[in-house]
Write a structure and sequence with these properties.
alpha/beta, TIM Barrel, 280 residues
Length: 280
């Protein structure tokens, strides 16, 4: 399965690297709320943090890392290059700016945030490879790419593409991409694994959770990380929800339950988005 259990946290092993299976997504978190949330997350045990140039919160994430007291080497840190910065020189320059805002010597994982038809993927990957060779980043990858685009990125460089970060939750399970990533030893990082919060009212997840004393959100997260080569980065801001999202390593879903949870549906995906954003 490419997964090991260390100190209560499950780690996904990809290309010899252990990545915490549950991390913190920071999209939508800015300013003091972001800094405080990341600090709290690190305090309760998170060791995987995701940010992006487009989020406008790299500085606050870096401040939280610096003040947390957690060793830098213990935290797997991801940021993403804007699609508008995909050209060679812009990748180099914007990544240096990201490193400065984050206050780190090396970024663990650098992704291209969105594919863009304006810049050949080979040009972007060449810049990322140079950053890796200079020690500015440890791993490189892409985001929001389907199998065809991920394959093209991998074919464009001799440097191993470490990850593809995509929308992935029970209503949008990314089965083809997950199978490809597992086969090719690429990490699939699931963002919005709770469907922007819309999955917390799902009746199937609630019924399964009752068997384990878990919430629907915890069942959805367990479903995600129980798949081969998958890590999840749910967003949360309250300490209670941060703790809840991390409390998913003491149970496992059966094969039947995994199949029950995954129900691909564009309609449900849209409904979960609306419900999560605006409530029932």
């Amino acid at each position: 399965m490419g997964r090991a259990r260390l100190s209560g946290m499950e780690y996904v092993t990809v290309q010899g690297e252990g990545v915490p299976a549950v991390g913190l997504g920071t999209w939508g978190l800015t300013g003091e709320e972001c800094r405080r949330t990341v600090e709290t997350a690190l305090d309760v045990g998170y060791r995987h943090v995701d940010t992006a140039q487009a989020y406008g919160n790299e500085r606050e994430v870096g401040q939280a890392l610096a003040s947390s007291g957690v060793d830098r080497d213990e935290v797997f840190l991801t940021t993403k290059v804007r699609a508008s910065n995909a050209r060679y020189d812009e990748v180099l320059a914007s990544t240096e700016e990201s490193r400065s805002r984050l206050g780190v010597e090396t970024i663990d994982l650098l992704l291209l945030h969105w594919p863009t038809p304006m810049v050949p993927i080979a040009e972007t990957m060449r810049a990322m490879t140079d950053l890796r060779e200079r020690g500015r980043v440890r791993h490189v990858g892409v985001s929001n790419c389907n199998v065809k685009r991920l394959r093209a990125a991998r074919e464009a460089t001799a440097t191993p593409v470490f990850a593809d970060q995509v929308l992935c939750h029970p209503y949008h399970p990314q089965r083809e991409l997950q199978a490809y990533c597992a086969r090719e030893d690429v990490l699939l990082t699931a963002y919005s694994p709770l469907g922007q919060g819309g999955l917390v009212a799902d009746d199937t997840l609630r019924k399964i959770g009752e068997r384990y004393g878990k919430t629907p959100a915890q069942v959805a997260l367990r479903w995600a990380i129980q798949q081969d080569h998958v890590a999840a980065i749910p967003k949360a801001s309250s300490r209670a929800h941060l703790v809840e999202n991390l409390d998913v390593f003491d149970f496992a879903l059966t094969r039947y339950e995994l199949d029950q949870v995954a129900r691909p549906s564009l309609l449900r995906t849209g409904y979960s988005y609306v419900r999560g954003r605006f409530g029932p």
